[in-house]
Amino acid sequence: MAEKNYAGKTVEVTEDGYFTNPADWNEEIAKEMATEAGIELTDKHLEVLNYLRKQFETGEALTIRKVGKSGVVDIKGLYQLFPGGPLKISSKLAGIPKPTSCV
Amino acid sequence: MSEHKAETPLKKVLVICAKGALEDVYAALVMANGAVMEGIEAKLFFTFFGLDGITKKRMNKLHTATLGNPAMRMPGGMQFPSLLGVLPGVESGVSSMMRKGMDDLDMPPVDEFLEMITAGGGEVFACKLAVDMFKLKKEDLSDEVKDIITIGQFYEMAGGENTQIIFT
After folding, report:
1. Of the residues A61, A84, B51, B68, which has the fewest C-beta atoms closer than 10 A?
2. Which residues form the active site (chain A) (predicted)?
3. Are B99 and B109 in contact (CB under 8 A)?
4. A102 has catalytic annotation
5. Sequence ranges of the domains in chain B
6. Residue A84 touches partner B, C-beta closer than 8 Å
7. Measured between alpha carbons, how far is B27 from A7 in angstroms, rounded to an integer?
8. Considering its fold, how many domains does chain A have in total?
9. Which letter does DSSP use for residue B21 in this model?
C-alpha cells in the first residue's frame, strides 16, 4: 500500500496506484490523476468514469464489451479516451479496483 | 510486482491460429484482445482450418470436438462417452452449450470479438496459401480482415524489440 496526494486529499492506493477505498474519489481527484497519466480529462471521460463507478457498485465484473454496450461510449471511443489501457487506466482514474476480467 | 516493472514490457504479439475448433480460435482471440487491452500491438494471422474463425459463414458456428477430445466431460464432470460423441447433433449441441457458457462470461461471439480487437488497433490477416487452397475470396472473410498475405509478409511485421510470436 502507498499513499498519494490528489487535490489536497491523501488517499491510500495499491502498489499499482488503484484506490483501496473507492469512496475517497471525486472528480477533482480524477482530474489530477489524469494529468499525471498524461490525459486531459473531458466531460466524456468523466461520463465514462461515473459509469464505471456505478457498474462497480453493482458488483459485476467490468469488461470492455460491457462498456462498449453501455451507450456511454463505444469500444473504439474507449480506446481513444484511455490509450494504452482502456479498462485499466479508466478504472484507475475512476478510483475503483484493478479490473480482473480477461475480456 | 515492482520486479515486473523493471523488465522491458512486451511491445508486440503476433498470434497465429491454424486450427478451427472453438477453443483454438477463442484462445487466439483472447490473447490478441488481451494484448490490445494492455496497450500491446497485436496482429492475428489465420491459416489452414483456422480460417473458419474469420469466414463469415462459419465463424459464429465453431464447434469443439466431442470425439477424440480426452478433456471433454459431461456437465457433472464424468468422462464424456466417445460413443455419445458420434451421434448426430451431439457435437453441435455441446458446442452451442459452450458458446452460451462463454457468452455468460461476456466472451463475445467471434464476429464481435474480431470487431473488438480491430477497434483497439489490432490487425487481422488471412494466409494467402490457405485462402487459395480452400478457394475462398476476400468477400467470404470477415470485414475485419485487413488483408490476405503470405507468411513472409507476416514475418516482416514482426520486427522490433520485445515482439513475440504465438502459435495456437
Report:
1. B68
2. 102
3. yes
4. yes
5. 17-65+85-167
6. yes
7. 43
8. 1
9. S
Measured between CA atoms, the residue of chain A closest to residue B40 is: A84
Domain assignment present for residue A9? The answer is yes
Specify the 3-state DSSP secondary structure of B29. helix
Spell out the residues 6+ positions from residue A14 whose beta carbon is closer than 8 angstroms to its own: A1, A2, A20, A97, A98
Interface check for A74 against chain B (CB to CB < 8 A): the answer is: yes
CB B137 within 8 A of CB B147: no
In chain B, what percentage of residues exceed pLDDT 90? 89
CB-based contact A75 B119, cutoff 8 Å = yes
Interchain CB distance below 8 Å, A103 and B105 = yes
> What CATH fold (topology level) applies to the domain B17-65+85-167?
Hypothetical Protein Ychn; Chain: A, (3.40.1260)
Q: Which residues of chain A have pLDDT under 50?
A: none
Give the distance from residue B11's alpha carbon to the nearest chain A alpha carbon, in angstroms. Answer: 11
pLDDT digits (tens, 9 = 90+) for B67-93: 999 999 998 999 999 999 999 999 999
Residues from chain A that touch B26, judged by Cβ atoms under 8 A, are none
CA distances from B81 to A55, A94, B100 (A): 42, 49, 22
Quote the domain boundaries for residue A83: 2-93
C-alpha cell at B98: 459452450
Put simply, whether the predicted model's pTM sits higher than 0.90 gets the answer yes
pLDDT over 60 (residue B6): yes
